[in-house]
């Protein structure tokens, strides 16, 4: 059995992409040293002109990557802290995402943004613990949140090959996950959900690291309740068909979404479920509260995030 | 190979005349309702676009601004297709999806006018850097106004270009006003001083003199092409018209009539024409091109609303996002 860690999976996806295609390059802060673990060894292997250490100028290097993408490269940029996405919202939302349409299809922006360690790492406090994937799904950018090392490899591989800008969130809570990868690592298509565990009583949709909590809860409740665990993997485009199919089997829905409640991804999933007409009970969501800013002290940080207890409680309520 | 239409003084004058005529026609078309949303007139600044582009090869690239028609035409875009774009027609440069502020022709190296002030500079730096990486050194020029000097991303871009020795040329069109804010009230220090602080050679030139702009641009482009890194040109110029065609609704008075008249007296076209034996023939040629452009643009069909979401993604969405 070969165990692959989540960061190593991302590292391998980058290495394979760099080896396969000379147009691929990586830009970011401290990527040469590999501070976030993603790019360890890549600069030594591929050179400092392909794995490029940038100054602390997120807006400029994000847009420079857009310029490079417009003229034939396939840049990957690493933003080590999720809140940096707010700094480069102009570049991503206003430039990269809009170029293809605004030019009437002349332009392609094959840019990949990777955020290793999105969400809470406990103790990183207010400006380092957001999990802003719902915002990017709302904008309509291709938005990926892999839960497992295999999916991390496969979705990053697909993101780099995609001709559109893609944002990939690697949840901090999933970075410690290891997976047996005796099977070959392969690209995972963007826009396809994954049923991690089939079930018949309730569909538990979980995003990112919460997939592992969902699986633990499902296992725990297995003697009495058959929980289907569904991982969208891609938040935009969302695999609505997979959700509807799952609800056809279960008729009940709980969503676990580690982002803020109002206008968050969970709300979209609940709306989709309601529109599908498959629900036999009110749907429930387990999220961060409205307008959450994570406080510093660990007990406070944890208190605002979806917990295993809250998930269990929601599943029990849903099947009542 | 230099852009053929800008290879000699006659070609440069003809192109300035084409831009002037295009902008005058666009103003008419705004009034007539053919152009929706209005435009940001470039009239008065023609020598900058033409002078800079005269130093470029067809393969070189530019990024432009919300006041971008002059740059786009100087780089060689078809005036008919640009006019059709302003009119929102399917035969426009961007199939009617971009309009005045986003006009682009990627095949000609025009990476787009841009509605966000300063946003084109880092894109040009990235394109310049990538061209070196891809082994096809092409120079990338970023046009921007004095207002963009206060966007942080522009200053970040100067630094990035400097440390990467990117084959980029930053062209600041200092027309004296960031919309209505005088440069004297908006720019601390000097434009060239800012670039120089990042280790970038920077000069100020008379932006009403097409040949002076061309000479400075040639030096900058040569430096970029030979591995000497980025340069910065500040071109002192003036826009005769309003910031935007909507402005007249409010009868804004932030510039004196004397000031406008003084700049008009230094008109770049008048000066260039004086040095040519047959400017009148070139005027007629530009007028003919514009007649054809107008005919082409008005003949273009309006887009089918059923295609309103077309071109949003380069690759199809595999999921079922609605």
From TrEMBL, chain A:
Alphabetically ordered keywords of this record: Oxidoreductase, Thiamine pyrophosphate
Domain Transketolase-like pyrimidine-binding: from-to ranges: 4-177
Protein name: Alpha-ketoacid dehydrogenase subunit beta
Cofactor dependence: thiamine diphosphate
Classification via SMART domains: Transket_pyr (SM00861)
InterPro entries reported in the protein's UniProt record: THDP-binding (IPR029061), Transketo_C/PFOR_II (IPR009014), Transketolase-like_Pyr-bd (IPR005475), Transketolase_C (IPR033248)
Top-level taxon of the source organism: Bacteria
Taxonomic source organism: Kitasatospora terrestris
Residue stretches spanning the membrane: none
UniProtKB/TrEMBL annotation, chain B:
This protein's name: Dehydrogenase E1 component domain-containing protein
Location of the Dehydrogenase E1 component domain: 13-286
Xref: Pfam families: E1_dh
Listed cofactors: thiamine diphosphate
Keyword line: Oxidoreductase, Thiamine pyrophosphate
Domain of life from the UniProt record: Bacteria
Keyword Iron part of the UniProt annotation: no
């Amino acid at each position: 059995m070969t165990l692959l860690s989540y960061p190593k999976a991302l590292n391998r996806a980058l290495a394979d992409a760099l080896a396969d295609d000379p147009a691929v390059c990586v830009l970011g802060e401290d990527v040469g040293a590999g501070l976030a673990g993603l790019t360890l060894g890549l600069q030594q292997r591929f050179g400092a002109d392909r794995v490029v250490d940038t100054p602390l100028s997120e807006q400029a290097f994000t847009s420079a990557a857009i310029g490079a993408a417009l003229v034939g490269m396939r840049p990957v940029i690493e933003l080590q802290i999720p809140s940096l996405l707010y700094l480069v919202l102009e570049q991503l939302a206003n430039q990269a995402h809009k170029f293809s349409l605004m030019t009437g299809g002349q332009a392609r922006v094959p840019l990949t943004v990777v955020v290793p360690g999105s969400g809470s790492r406990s103790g990183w406090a207010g400006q380092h613990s957001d999990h802003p994937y719902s915002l990017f799904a709302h904008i309509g950018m291709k938005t990926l949140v892999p839960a497992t090392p295999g999916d991390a490899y496969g979705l990053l591989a697909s993101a780099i090959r995609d001709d559109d800008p893609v944002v990939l969130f690697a949840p901090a809570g999933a970075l410690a996950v290891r997976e047996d990868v005796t099977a070959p690592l392969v690209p995972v298509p963007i826009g396809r959900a994954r049923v991690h565990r089939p079930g018949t009583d309730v569909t538990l949709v979980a995003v990112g690291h919460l997939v592992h909590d969902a699986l633990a809860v499902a296992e725990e409740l297995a003697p009495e309740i058959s929980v289907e665990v569904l991982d969208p993997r891609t938040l935009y485009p969302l695999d609505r068909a997979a959700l509807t199919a799952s609800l056809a089997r279960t008729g009940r829905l709980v969503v676990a979404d580690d982002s803020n409640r109002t206008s968050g991804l969970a709300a979209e999933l609940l709306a989709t479920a309601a529109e599908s007409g498959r629900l036999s009970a009110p749907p429930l969501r387990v999220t961060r509260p409205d307008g959450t800013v994570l406080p510093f002290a660990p007990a406070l940080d944890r208190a605002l995030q979806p917990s295993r207890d809250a998930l269990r409680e929601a599943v029990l309520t849903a099947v009542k | 190979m230099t852009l053929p239409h800008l290879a000699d003084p006659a070609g440069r004058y003809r192109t300035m005349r084409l831009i002037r005529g295009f902008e005058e026609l666009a103003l008419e078309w705004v009034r007539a309702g053919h152009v929706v949303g209005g435009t940001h007139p470039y009239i008065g600044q023609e020598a900058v676009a033409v002078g800079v582009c005269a130093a470029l090869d067809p393969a070189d690239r530019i990024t432009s601004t919300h006041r971008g028609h002059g740059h786009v035409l100087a780089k060689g875009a078809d005036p008919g297709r640009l006019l059709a774009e302003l009119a929102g027609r399917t035969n426009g440069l961007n199939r009617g999806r971009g309009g005045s502020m986003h006009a682009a022709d990627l095949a000609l190296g025009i990476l787009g006018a841009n509605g966000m002030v300063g946003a084109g500079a880092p894109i040009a730096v990235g394109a310049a850097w990538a061209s070196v990486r891809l082994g096809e050194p092409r120079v990338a020029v970023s046009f921007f106004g004095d207002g963009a000097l206060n966007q942080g991303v522009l200053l970040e871009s100067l630094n990035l270009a400097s440390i990467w020795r990117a084959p980029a040329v930053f062209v600041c069109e200092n027309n004296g006003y960031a919309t209505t804010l005088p440069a004297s009230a908006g720019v601390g220090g000097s434009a060239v001083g800012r670039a120089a602080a990042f280790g970038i050679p920077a000069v100020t030139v008379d932006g009403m003199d097409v040949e002076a702009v061309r000479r400075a641009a040639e030096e900058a482009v040569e430096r970029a092409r030979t591995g000497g890194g980025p340069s910065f040109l500040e071109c002192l110029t003036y826009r005769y018209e309003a910031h935007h065609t909507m402005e007249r609704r409010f009868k804004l008075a932030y510039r004196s009539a004397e000031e406008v008249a003084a700049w008009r007296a230094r008109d770049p076209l008048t000066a260039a024409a004086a040095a040519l034996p047959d400017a009148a023939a070139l005027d007629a040629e530009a007028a003919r091109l514009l007649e054809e452009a107008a005919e082409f643009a008005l003949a273009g069909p309006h887009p089918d609303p059923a295609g309103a979401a077309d071109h949003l993604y380069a690759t199809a969405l595999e999921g079922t996002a609605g």
